[in-house]
Amino acid sequence: MLVSILLPANQRRTAINTTEHTHHHGHDVGERLYLHRHSVVHALPSHLKIIAAISFILVVVSTPVTQWGAFIAYFVWLFVVVAVAQIPFSLLFKRALIEIPFIFFAVLMPFFGTGEKIQFGPFDLYREGLIAGSGIVVKGTLGVMTAIILSTSTTAREILRGLERLKLPVLMVQIASFMLRYVNVVNDEMERMKIARESRGFEATGIKHWKVLATAAGALFIRSYERGERVHLSMLSRGYDGVLPHEEPPHVSSANWLKAMSYPVVAIFIFIAQTVIGRM
Amino acid sequence: MNTPSLEIKDLAFAYPDGNQALYGVNLSVQKGERVALLGPNGAGKTTLVMHMNGIHPTSHGSIHVAGQLVDSKNKESIKEIRAKVGIVFQDPDDQLFMPTVGEDVAFGPYNMGIRGAELDSVVTEALELVGMLEFKDRPPHHLSFGQRRRVAVATVLAMKPEILVLDEPSSNLDPASRRELADILRSLDITMVMVTHDLPYAFELCARSVILKGGVIVADDSTHAILTNQALLRENRLELPVGFSIK
Q1: Interface predicted TM-score of the whole assembly (ipTM), two decimals
Q2: Which residues of B are less than 8 Å from A227 in CB distance?
Q3: What are B168-211's pLDDT values in tens digits?
Q4: Which of A198, A228, B21, B112 could form a disulfide with B44 if both were Cys (CB 3.0 to 4.6 A apart)?
Q5: Which residue segment(s) compose the domain that A132 sits in?
Q6: Hey, are the CB atoms on A233 and B99 less than 8 Å from each other?
Q7: Would strands A117-120 and B6-14 be described as parallel, antiparallel, or unpaired?
Q8: In terms of domains, do A145 and A52 share one?
Q9: Are the Cβ atoms of A181 and B140 closer than 8 angstroms?
Q10: Mean pLDDT over all residues of chain B?
């Protein structure tokens, strides 16, 4: 308020709420998943997080689905890690929706099959299908949520660095990092083409417009392909011979190893505890 | 006389589809000279540039960079040539492909075998020359077009080239960025070949200009002499902007 009084009228600016603005220039298409927080999980070196995530998923996948107690404990432990990483639960659940198309068939499994049937409300369900289906849903959800913790607490670039440190084939890391760099450029180009189309009165409303969209996609492909050639030329001009610069892996303190590995190790304890309790 | 930075003799080139782009180009650029390479679209300017560092193999004639023959078949020497000839491409997005500005500037020197602390200092030095050091850890996508062009210049400066080749350096720049880039280029102590349609820019930065048309050099003179020769400009589809005149 004070500022607007002190400033002469011609310097006053009208504040416009830009958050409502849906058009953005495709910034950070590759970084949209990352949520900036200062948590223990965020601070861990990315390759440790990748190892921890994969190990946790392996433990989860090897747990027999009949040991349902262990799965409840896995979920509790996962939620603890989510809380430590300062990831809002609403965000976690929203992003977990991505698995729906993948578990679609798992949900259908109890309805088809052979063998013993059990009555479940109005449905006749096959016991084996029910076990297999729920196993896929539960294990899938744990896996997806683990991936969400990783992608929300680590920038895409850091994940690539981590994969590089884990000796993933250089070619794969290179392809992925180029994708990360150019997805924004291509996205901008797509956006400009869309605006150019709309400026001439075109609006895609239905199937009859697919031909135009397909042509545009083709043009975009050609342009991207040509850009790829130009990028390659510019790389050759700077002496590229198949190796991208990479940094030496930083020294990882044992405290960091301990923190990262607690994620799968606790899961292993849960698994063992459940097995022991189950035998008693 | 010293060895010229760039010596092109009788260079001819035809694309594999039979389309001939160069018909015997002769050009010599002395050390420290700044030369503007002018010419209409399709004159073969880019083709010529692609020969300077052996991207296009020399099929007829010869090119020497600081006395060294450009021979794209010789892997070792071509590596040295590419370190000596720094090409700044027209679209900075083609040139900046690494995730951050700093990593991109490090790309060239890394390929030349520089590592560790020396690599860091080379990167810092190059970014300082173009006034972009504070953007070292930023992704190129977040920079303005003018800033990206400056980083693109830094990526080749980091290789400490003998000769800097710029393809349309002023294109798509706003007036202030255009001037800032001119100041940076003028401050560099380096041989420069500048491909451009921006005649005032050529006048400002280069004492000498050559015109390439139809695959041959048709004029080679002081920029002042070329830009005041109305008939020559017209013949080569070059025009000074309206209202711009050189005495």
Answers
A1: 0.75
A2: 91, 93-94
A3: 999 999 999 999 999 999 999 999 999 999 999 999 999 999 99
A4: B21
A5: 36-164+250-279
A6: no
A7: unpaired
A8: yes
A9: yes
A10: 92
